[in-house]
Amino acid sequence: MNKYIFIFYLCFLASGLFAQKQLEVTSPDGGIKATIRLADKIYYDIAYNGDVLLKDNSLQLDLQDGSLGQNPVLIRQKLTQVNETLTPVVPLKFSTVQNEYANLLMTFKGGYSVEFRAYNDGIAYRFITNKKGDVEVLQEEFTLNFPDSYLLHLQQPGSFKTAYEELYTHVESNEWKPTDKMSVLPVLVDTRKQYKILISESDLSDYPCMFLQGNGSNGVTAVFPKYPLEFGEDGDRSLKILKEAGYIAKTNGQRSFP
Question: Of 148, 228, 235, 258, which has fewest CB within 10 angstroms of its CB?
Fold first, then answer.
């Protein structure tokens, strides 16, 4: 009987292993690599020259009609290399910008894709949806986990209403609790090695900005303000939110997200 149980356990373990799919995207110079694992969620690690800096991170976009990234079913994948010159409408430091990266586009069942980009100095990702009409985004999961204790440089307001003028605080990553104040972006992470990591976002349109809070397990997770429905006076040049929706964004279903 024990032999049959053992064989069943091995078969179960093997099926669990084969259920995961792993993909990789590496920067043009070969230094930065994102390893993506498809299991019950979409997980990813980020390494530089083989040194893992962020581990077992996860992403998910919760819509009113379902969660994108939960039990993902990959339909196709496409890896491309991009090397182009951009000309800013208003040139500041440079009149042209060289835009070079490796791009991994993963298309999933359910009308959405996730795009990972690996630049020579960073990793970026975003959701892309292809749904009819408007969609209500209930929440977005953005979770980063640190393999060691890192030093975080934060601006921590007392609420979502902030002038971004708070003094910087310096917090150990393994000591930042969910009950502590959250932080605005960008967040600077000192790994105490030869690397520093800047967490930021771009391409915000019809979508709230992201705040970060500690998860109590040597990592950070995203929090977002709810969509405001009604405003009231709150002093000089200021408004307060009187009523909020149950979602963070109501936006076009055919778009790319921040």
Answer: 235
